[in-house]
Design a protein that fits this description.
The chain is an all-alpha fold and 325 residues long. It has 17 helices and no strands.
Length: 325
């Protein structure tokens, strides 16, 4: 008797009809079953396609001398001309890059731990009513734009009529021009940014704290552990994956030093310490119409951010933590 000849195509179809679907058929069936969930996801995908991936078409401006009348495609190709100008000829680039890194580093050093500490403190509150009030008060500044908050800060920190300087004078100290003195401007930026976002940043950490098993605390109490020891040995290790994840995402934005805040608070007197990459792009690109140069700055920021995310994710995995991917 002759052995039957196997045809992969026919066999694959037979497997589907014999109740043994192929991998692709099973995957398609799962997608079909969840089609309404994908329909709900469609607006998000459209938003990302239009506002996140669509603008990538304009990246080519970094390698062209853009002329409005010629359009993007018609503008002449100049290669790395704008990058060479930024790195080797621009008198301002190194200064604004340094300002961006310093301000962002201060935000990470003091601003990143702030919501973690506040979440731990709120988690220790036993009164439900007081906890809700505390959370609401700390969330509130997040919902105000920097246009509004900058007006409040300018009024409060005014050297002549501000409440803060009035209190300093009451205790015998001299008035401080917080927003006009380069020596105090960066610290004012960091403190005001923490005040605005610290409450909102606690949301994800409080959610992580809610997942800590109460039995672990009960066992620690039986062993005689203090609240501080419970925090170090139970609470922080439990929420550490969330902390690492948020840190990786924060490192990816290291060249975003707070454009809205600085734009509304800085002045020519503080350009030397406050001018960052984003304000440079705004001033040179939108006001002086040098679109190609500012596109090169933006591309430089994105490449550095992507490299930092990869490096931080790799280091997190090397130290035994769960990375972003």
């Amino acid at each position: 008797m002759m052995n039957p000849v196997h045809n992969p195509e026919v066999d694959g179809k037979k497997n589907i009809f014999n109740g043994q679907p192929s991998k692709w058929a099973a995957t398609w069936r799962e997608y079909k079953k969840c089609r309404y969930l994908f329909l709900l996801l469609a607006p998000v995908m459209i938003w990302y396609a239009v506002f996140a991936y669509g603008p990538m078409y304009g990246i080519q401006l970094a390698f062209k001398d853009f002329r409005i009348m010629d359009g993007i495609w018609g503008s002449p190709w100049v290669g790395f001309k704008h990058f060479e100008f930024l790195f080797f000829q621009s008198p301002d680039f190194l200064r604004i890059l340094k300002n961006t890194i310093v301000i962002s580093f201060l935000h990470i050093l003091f601003g990143f731990p702030a919501p973690i500490i506040l979440a731990l403190l709120i988690n220790e509150i036993r009164s439900g009513a007081f906890k809700r009030v505390a959370q609401s008060l700390t969330y509130l500044p997040h919902f105000f734009s920097w246009v509004i908050l900058s007006g409040i800060l300018i009024t409060l920190l005014s050297p002549s009529s501000g409440v803060v300087n009035y209190l300093l004078q009451l205790v015998g100290l001299e008035s401080v021009y917080f927003l006009g003195d380069p020596n105090h401007f960066r610290s004012t930026l960091v403190i005001s940014a923490i005040w605005k976002e610290v409450g909102w940043g606690t949301i994800i950490y409080l959610a992580a704290l809610a997942g800590v098993q109460p039995e672990m605390y009960e066992a620690a109490v039986m062993d005689g552990a203090s609240r501080w020891r419970q925090t170090l040995s139970i609470t922080l290790p439990t929420i550490m994956p969330v902390i690492v994840l948020m840190f990786i995402l924060r490192i990816g934005n290291v060249l975003d030093a707070g454009f809205d805040q600085i734009l509304n608070l800085y002045s020519p007197a503080t350009y030397s310490v406050a001018d960052i990459l984003d304000t440079y792009v705004y001033r040179v690109g939108l006001q002086n119409f040098q679109f190609s140069l500012t596109t090169a700055v933006g591309l430089f920021k994105n490449v550095i951010a992507f490299a930092l995310v990869l490096a931080t994710n790799y280091m997190a995995k090397r130290f035994g933590q769960q990375g972003l991917f």
